[in-house]
Amino acid sequence: MSSPAADPAAAGPDGARGPDTGSAAASLVGGAADARRLAADSLAAGDPTGWFETLYAASRAGNAVVPWDVAEPSARLRALDLPPGAGRRALIVGCGPGRDAEHVAALGYTTTAFDISATAIDLARERHPGSPVTYTVADLLDPRPDWRHAFDLVLESNNVQALPTGIRAAAIPAIGGFVAPGGTLIVLAAATTRIDSDGSGPPWPLTRAEIDAFAIGGLRPVSVDQVNAAGTTLPTRWQAIYRR
Ligand SMILES: C[S@@+](CC[C@H](N)C(=O)[O-])C[C@H]1O[C@@H](n2cnc3c(N)ncnc32)[C@H](O)[C@@H]1O
Questions:
Q1: Any residues with CB less than 8 A from the CB of 167 and at least 6 apart, and which?
Q2: Chain-centre distance of CA 157, in angstroms?
Q3: How distant is the alpha carbon of residue 27 from its chain centre?
Q4: In the predicted model, what is the mean pLDDT of the chain?
Q5: Is 55 in the pocket of ligand 1 (CB under 6 A)?
Q6: 140 lines ligand 1 (CB under 6 A)
Q7: HEC readout, 110-132
Q8: What top-level class would CATH report for the domain 73-243?
Q9: Alpha-carbon gap, residue 74 to 79, rounded angstroms
Q10: Locate the Methyltransferase domain: which residues (predicted)?
Q11: CA-based torsion, 224, 228, 229, 235: positive or negative
């Protein structure tokens, strides 16, 4: 597998980089701080996912920066060199404004992409006029019954790492439940944070047990790799592929 170039969103809300890494990265410092502050407030209020809509809406109003909101598809996704998708259905979990969904759709997959944030879905539709992707608001923690075992390709990129550990036990099997017989699940996620980090998140890296927990309900691991994430603030990331 090739080692892709820097992927700003690979860091997710951990996007803050040193001041020596250029103006684009420097702008992420505020984004990471915005995300962490809103996440902490939301968690304290007992609403672990409410901060996503708050952050997207504040960003749209020009009052915050969404640290993972970049135009380019995930570098790790691009490096996977997926096969053509004609005749196959793909589901993009937590799609945000649609960068990865557009990449997968361009490969020919009939693509559905969902996010819990209505503003994120509005942004996706506005930024990609005429897109073949079906963008829709949905909650991973309340999965649609008609999506069960319905997709040949499912992408989970950078989302579970932004959920507190307490609700991952529900999120992880829900993601696997979307994969059709013979289908593939791709999981891209933080594995470690910086050694000098104070440990606060998001992101909250996935443990080995959590990445292995995707392999349930008939899903079996094809490869589970902890890869270097040079060029991002996350030293290593999980790159895992499962098949049903
Ligand atoms: C860290 S961002 C990553 C976005 C995107 N996957 C990317 O890599 O650019 C996490 C995304 O998951 C979405 N999300 C969080 N909880 C969700 C849930 N329960 N159901 C659906 N989407 C959710 C957020 O709104 C946000 O867009």
A1: 48, 49, 141
A2: 3
A3: 20
A4: 86
A5: no
A6: yes
A7: EEEEEECCHHHHHHHHHHCCCCC
A8: alpha beta
A9: 9
A10: 91-183
A11: positive
By most ligand atoms within 8 Å of CB, the mutation choice from 111, 115, 127 for ligand 1 is: 115
Lowest mean pLDDT among 119-123, 181-185, 228-232: 228-232
- What's the Rg (C-alpha) of the chain? 17
Ligand 1 in reach of 12 Cβ (< 6 A): yes
**Ligand 1, pocket-test mutation among 59, 116, 135, 233, most atoms within 8 A of CB:** 116
Each residue's pLDDT tens digit, 135-170? 999 999 999 999 999 999 999 999 999 999 889 999
- Is 44 exposed, middle or buried, given 0-12, 13-18 or 19+ CB atoms closer than 10 A? exposed
- The reply to whether ligand 1 has any atom less than 6 angstroms from the CB of 141 is yes
238, β-bridge pairs: 189, 226
| Secondary structure class of 57 (helix, strand, coil) | helix
Could you give the angle at which helices 50-60 and 118-127 cross, rounded to 10 degrees?
40
Q: pLDDT tens-digit profile of 187-240?
A: 999 998 766 666 677 889 999 999 999 999 999 999 999 998 876 667 899 999
Q: Give strand pairing partners of 226.
A: 238
What does the domain layout of the chain look like in residue ranges? 73-243
Distance CA 88, CA 55 (A): 33
Q: From 174, 215, 68, 128, select the one nearest 111 (Cα to Cα).
A: 128
> Which atom of ligand 1 is nearest to 92's Cα?
6
Share of the chain above pLDDT 90, in %: 71
